[in-house]
Amino acid sequence: MAVKFLKRMLPNRKTQKRLALFAAMCSLASLSLFAAETVHKVLLRDVTQIEGVRDNELVGYGLVAGLNRTGDTQQTYFTVQTLANALTRMGVQIAPGVVVVKNVAAVFVTAKLPPFARPGMKIDVTVSSVGDAKSITGGVLLLTALRASNGFVYAEAQGPLVIGGYTEGLSGNVRSVNHPTVGRISDGGIVEREAAVDLSRFHIISLLLLNSDFTAARDVADVINKEFGKTIATALDSNRIDVNVADSGEPSVPILISRVQNLSINVHSPAKVIVNERTGTIVMGGDVRLSPVSVIHGSLTIDVQTALIVSQPPPFSGGETKTVTETRLSVNDAPAQSIQLQEGANVDELIKGLHAIGATSHDIIAILQAIKAAGGLQADLEVI
Length: 384
Known about the structure:
Structural class: alpha+beta
Low-confidence stretches: 1-11, 19-37
Number of strands: 25
């Protein structure tokens, strides 16, 4: 309409063409700005993972020694039994019932075995007390075997602990910071068994999306096929994209994976609202939109106070001094406050309006659930 009006006002044909071109450029610029607000580019390495290439969890049971009388007590029987077994393997025969030590604690040792780990590589380990030790500060982890779910030993761990906290004090007057019963040993584990994946046997590379989405899966397949100039990738579902190694023409699988992972796609942020009702935390994406809705919020406060009053009779009256209960009731019904949101309102407008009427985080959670039930929240509401 603006272009037609300008054409009538300016009959010059050359000027009309310039104005029409200018209007088209403005329209394209506004569309590109709108797209930039809702879509952003990411590398495939940031939104996908390779099927079969993953970490493996390791766990072991051992002892921490050298504690300053802060270890497990005599009631933790398995610690004494473990210590007796360890000494037996070293040629020292003792009866578990006569062992009384407080500088030893039983612990679980956990670690993650990275993909393509080779013997001799070092990994970090975490040490956690499983008995009633007060603290494992200053302790040293004795040699502990770390096993995978299949029962095989994949690493050994040993070394001094680093604790991110402390416990000080006596006789109930104790100050504790962080968790003195959990420690960490940097490079404290050594890989003993190979857990590498043989990529040379891969005929198909399966890319798994970190967040399932049919559109993203299609875009991943399209950008890979465009890069190689032929169809080598196929989206099987909303999570998996298969890439044919032989059809890619690459000399090795690692080179193919590197080339694929450095491609980028447009990612549309999902319209989602995450609510943690226990902590009152609310996280909402910028693409969340609201239909026209009115929110009325009011509060009714009923305060009941009970006080104990001593009833003292007059002198020489023969009465008894008694304690009586006095109850006071107060009711405060605040007037309801309301906000109105127009078509296309976003999260920022909703939060500002709710804060303006004095709604707390728990009030906002209840209001969001009511708006969702009324069909006014154009997003998925997930309560965790």
